[in-house]
Structure formats: structure tokens, C-alpha cells
Amino acid sequence: MTSANRGKFILISNAHCIPYNQYEERERYSECIRNLDFDKSNMSQLLKYMGYDSKGGYQVKNSTKEEIKDFLKTKLIEIDNDSSSQYDSLVILFLSGKLLCEAGKIYDKNGDILPRREILDIIKECKHFKGKPKIIFVQSFSFTEETEPMDSMDPLDSIANDFIANCEPNTDDLFVVSSYPRIGQGPWIIGENMIGSYFIQALVHVFKNSAYKKSFMELLKE
């Protein structure tokens, strides 16, 4: 990871569109939003620090499934049609969730699931990033305290690597990393002037300190 022209960063956030009625839900919602805003800012700053370009309207929020797909298709087609594009990798961050959500899922503003396969198919159609690393971060958050533990769902096979059919080689250079913050089980950092999820904080720390000398897969093991 030494290129000065690192790549393109796209942020898709549906973190501000979850309806709530009861006081308890409203409190949890507000806490999640504060932490997710911090995570979003942290990731944006990290990718900017690493040389990724996010200018030109490459962020969208509070969108339906079709709007998200159209947005992504449009931006990738723009890159394909721009002869001056010289990006050497692509990073996409999805932030979404609802009161009762599943780990590793992408939700639209109505709480409907956007199949990851549809997103992956759109990305693989982009000619500019053929043979180049494409990294997707999926942060799904729940506003309830009782949620199924992430490690009981075999995340390595069913979430992070579901794009590799039948354990075939990853010839598309495509990686998916999922995070599932949950209030009741302590995913948020607690301390004076400290907010955000453990996963994003750790990601920022490891990438800032080691991205110049280690591969992406090595960094995820840190």
C-alpha cells in the first residue's frame, strides 16, 4: 500500500432514517447515531489520510434500494468513462441498520435488505477496477440490546466471503468485511471524550500505523 494515487472512496449511509416511537428506542437510536457519526467521520478521515479520493458527490444517505444501486452504477460508469481516472483500488463503506437487524446485511432507508450479491455484481461490471483491489465495509447496527452474537453465525463463510461461490479462488480481487455494533454487549468505546465502535477505532489505528508496510489481509488479522 504505497501508491500516492490510492483509489476512490464511496460512502453510503442510511444511519439517520430509522423510525422510533418509544422513549427507550429513542434513547438507543440517539446513542447509535452519535457513535455512527463518529465512525463515519473516522473512516472518511482515514481514507483521506491514506490518499483516497471522495470528492465529486461520492457520498449518499437515506436512500432506497433502487436509489443506492442507481447511485453506485452511475458513479462507477463515470469512472469508466473518464479517461483521466487512475485509481488503483476501490473502497465502499455501507452504514445501515434498524431496530431489529441481521449482522452483515445492507439496509435501505425503509429497512428493506439490499442483497449484497446485487452490489457485488454492479462493482464487478466496472472495467476500471478489473484486477484491482475492491474492498467493501458493511457496518450493520441494531438499536436493540438483545441480538444474536456475530460469532455464532460463521461470519468467515456466510458474511465476509459469501462472494466466493463454492470456495472458488477470489479472481475478482473483491473483499467484504462486516461489523455488527450492539449497544447491550458493549461494542461502543466507553470513556471520557471517547465514542465510536471498537471495530472502526481498531481499523483506523491498524491502517494508520501499518498500511504502508503490510497487505490488506495482513492488516485485518491485526
From TrEMBL:
Q: What positions does the domain Caspase family p10 occupy? A: 196-222
Q: Name one GO molecular function term.
A: cysteine-type endopeptidase activity
Which residues, by range, are in coiled-coil regions? none
| BP GO terms, sorted | proteolysis
Annotated InterPro entries: Caspase-like_dom_sf, Pept_C14, Pept_C14_caspase, Pept_C14_p10
A GO cellular-component term linked to this record? IPAF inflammasome complex
Write the protein's name: Caspase family p10 domain-containing protein
Biological source species: Mytilus galloprovincialis (Mediterranean mussel)
